[in-house]
Amino acid sequence: MHAPLGVFGGTFDPIHVGHIELAREVRDALQLAAVRIIPAGDPPHRAAPVATAFHRLAMTELAVAGVAGLEVDRREVDRPGRSFTVLTLESLRAEDPARPLALIVGADAFLGFPGWHRWREIFALSHVVVVARPGSPFPAHLPPALADEWAARRADDAQVLHETAAGAILVQPITPHDITASSIRAQLGRGADGIAAVRGLLPPAVLAYIDRNQLYRSRPDAT
Question: Residues 93-145: pLDDT tens digits?
Fold first, then answer.
């Protein structure tokens, strides 16, 4: 069986060093073959992104360029309609039915699973890796339907990701990075001063792209 493929989706509006370090840390800790970073074309669970899908994909490609073990997957940008995770996993599963998949989600996103489109089917398509800050209590107050899945699928050994194709839930502690895309957008709304303020929070090529294309200048209060 192939080594697991990590699947890390999001709006990436914009992608920042916290995203990159999270993907690298999870890949190394769980010995994943690679992590696919998949920008959402039309995210269903939040307000519309500020930057277009075209720009968010371009920034993601710049951020990942040259980073070993990280790949960009554009299928959600290219696919029409809402960017439902279950459809992306079905597409990846069809490409390689036997390969283990590991969907990487934050703790808050995991708690919201019961609101996701066809959410129970995700477990038949992929493992779920819940990233959590060290010392943070997890899980806490799981919705009843999710608590049932947690009880049935929780794994304590990452080896399960290598031995089966899908179905386990694994919690992976990660190094915290206090960086948010919303705070970066707010800073960038200040213009040149904002560019200076976020230097170091974004890969240099991404920051240059934002500056060159004047992104996030028109909506400084976007969240």
Answer: 999 999 999 999 999 999 999 999 999 999 999 999 999 877 666 777 899 99
Which residues 6+ apart lie within 8 Å of 5 measured at CB? 32, 33, 34, 35, 36, 92, 99, 100, 101, 102
CATH topology of domain 5-178: Rossmann fold (3.40.50)
Distance CA(41)–CA(61), nearest Å, equals 14
Rounded to an integer, the average pLDDT of 19-46 is 96
Number of C-alpha atoms within 13 angstroms, CB side, residue 114?
10
CA 131 from centre of chain: 10
Return the DSSP state at 219: -
Residue 171 near residue 133 (C-beta atoms within 8 A):
no
Distances (CA, A) of 109 to 14, 104, 126, 128: 18, 10, 16, 11
List the Cα angle 85/152/139 in 5-degree steps.
Answer: 70
What's the maximum distance between 2 C-alpha atoms anywhere in the chain? 52
Q: Is 188 exposed, middle or buried (0-12, 13-18, 19+ CB in 10 A)?
A: buried
Residue 106 tokens, joined: 């934050």
Give the mean model confidence (pLDDT) for residues 67-71.
97
